[in-house]
């Protein structure tokens, strides 16, 4: 029995989410990513492509190429919510699902042709995703993951493409060698130096030549160029950690700014835990100095998702870790060892009003945005503004909860 692999990819996912929330962005050039000079483009609308903008590009360069675009920092919580909605739709319909990223999915439909018809099934699944989520999505269908992924990229935007069994090489032949997954800029330049730019040339090359030039990776590239890929679908499981990082536009030793950043990240991640019905048992803090040396410390803790338990632990780790007093380039916080559960009252130091406070805060955040209500300790110059948040309180500042350190 031949394999049938479906690859689904949400088109310019972050941009599509922003447009779903604000229709004024439709048909306008939109760029989502870090808005500072060191920021990177996370997603760019098709309107920006003609200017040379693409994901992974430095935001500074994107501004020079397309200065009239709408620049948005983005909201990780919003994108996670939409991704989860699409994941649940797909997971309820396919036998085996692999979630390759927040906006990319593989499904093994092998054997379904005898009952339904894989292409018809995939088409109806795509229509359902568009109808229920409002997000554009493309798919490719073939006998393996590589050809399906390339087919999806050729089908975009918002379209679909099936490569019939036996036509994989013919489909790949006229395409650029850059279309093959794992062929990055360095490998592509090596091919260009050899006078090779298209896949059909690689298809005609002896495997021994590829091995002599690229080593063991040469076999993988050669097989993928010939439409050969036996990699299995890795069944989707819920993530076991969540994290947040902040790269400063200018390296700093401002301790107030650093502590505000740490507290803001910890508070937001705790909210993400509660919203997802998760508890964490391990806290990690990471520091990257201006010389790019990176250090981290972690601590095991009792399962919790409460701000007033997690934030002091994060601060304790930071104070123990930050000992070099050099300029800091990046800070990060990670909660791992996740398990399903909800925050429970600690009989020794919590009160019922604490739980009620969290419920009220989270209700406001879910309705109006992650940063609509926050602790005073998480405000200030070092706090990261998450998303393109419009305050619902008639232009008034966000609600601030005073936080007293014991």
Automatic annotation (TrEMBL):
It is an enzyme of class 2 (transferase). Residues 5-184 form the UmuC domain. Binds 2 magnesium ions per subunit. Keywords: Cytoplasm, DNA damage, DNA repair, DNA replication, DNA-binding, DNA-directed DNA polymerase, Magnesium, Metal-binding, Mutator protein, Nucleotidyltransferase, Transferase. It catalyses: DNA(n) + a 2'-deoxyribonucleoside 5'-triphosphate = DNA(n+1) + diphosphate. GO terms for biological process: DNA repair; DNA-templated DNA replication; error-prone translesion synthesis; SOS response. Its cofactor is Mg(2+). The record marks 14 as: Substrate discrimination. One of its GO terms (cellular component) is cytosol. Belongs to the DNA polymerase type-Y family. Monomer. Poorly processive, error-prone DNA polymerase involved in untargeted mutagenesis. Copies undamaged DNA at stalled replication forks, which arise in vivo from mismatched or misaligned primer ends. These misaligned primers can be extended by PolIV. Exhibits no 3'-5' exonuclease (proofreading) activity. May be involved in translesional synthesis, in conjunction with the beta clamp from PolIII. This is DNA polymerase IV. It comes from Flagellimonas maritima. The gene is dpo4.
């Amino acid at each position: 029995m031949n394999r049938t692999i479906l690859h689904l990819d949400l088109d310019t996912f972050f941009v599509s989410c922003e447009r779903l929330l604000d229709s004024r962005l439709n048909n306008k050039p939109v760029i989502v990513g870090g808005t500072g000079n060191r920021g990177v483009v996370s997603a760019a609308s098709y309107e920006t492509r003609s200017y040379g903008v693409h994901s992974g590009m430095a935001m500074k360069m994107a501004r020079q190429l397309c200065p009239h675009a709408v620049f948005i920092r983005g909201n990780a919580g919003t994108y996670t919510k939409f991704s989860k909605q699409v994941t649940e739709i797909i997971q309820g319909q396919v036998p085996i699902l692999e979630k390759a990223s927040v906006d990319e999915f593989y499904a093994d439909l092998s054997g379904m042709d005898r009952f339904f018809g894989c292409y018809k099934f995939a088409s109806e699944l795509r229509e359902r995703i568009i109808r229920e989520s409002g997000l554009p999505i493309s798919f490719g269908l073939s006998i393996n993951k590589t050809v399906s992924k390339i087919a999806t990229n050729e089908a975009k935007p918002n379209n679909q493409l099936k490569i019939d069994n036996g036509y994989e090489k013919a489909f790949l032949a006229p395409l650029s060698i850059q279309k093959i997954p794992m062929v990055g800029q360095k490998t592509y330049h090596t091919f260009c130096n050899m006078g090779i730019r298209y896949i059909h040339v690689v298809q005609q090359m002896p495997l021994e030549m590829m091995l002599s030039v690229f080593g063991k990776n040469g076999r993988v590239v050669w097989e993928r160029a010939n439409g050969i890929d036996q990699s299995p679908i890795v069944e989707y499981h819920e993530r076991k950690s969540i994290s947040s990082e902040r790269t400063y536009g200018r390296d700093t030793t401002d301790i107030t700014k650093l502590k505000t950043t740490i507290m803001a990240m910890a508070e937001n991640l705790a909210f993400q835990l509660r919203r997802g019905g998760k508890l964490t048992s391990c806290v990690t803090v990471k520091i990257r100095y201006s010389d790019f040396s990176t250090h981290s410390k972690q601590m095991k803790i009792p399962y919790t998702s409460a701000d007033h338990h997690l934030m002091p632990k994060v601060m304790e780790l930071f104070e123990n870790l930050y000992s070099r007093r050099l300029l800091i380039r990046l800070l990060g916080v990670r909660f791992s060892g996740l398990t399903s559960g909800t925050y429970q009252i600690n009989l020794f130091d919590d009160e019922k009003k604490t739980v009620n406070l969290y419920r009220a805060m989270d209700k406001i955040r879910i309705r109006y945005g992650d940063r609509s209500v926050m602790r005073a300790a998480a405000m200030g110059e070092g706090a990261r503004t998450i998303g393109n948040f419009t305050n619902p309180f008639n232009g008034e500042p966000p609600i601030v909860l005073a936080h007293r350190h014991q």
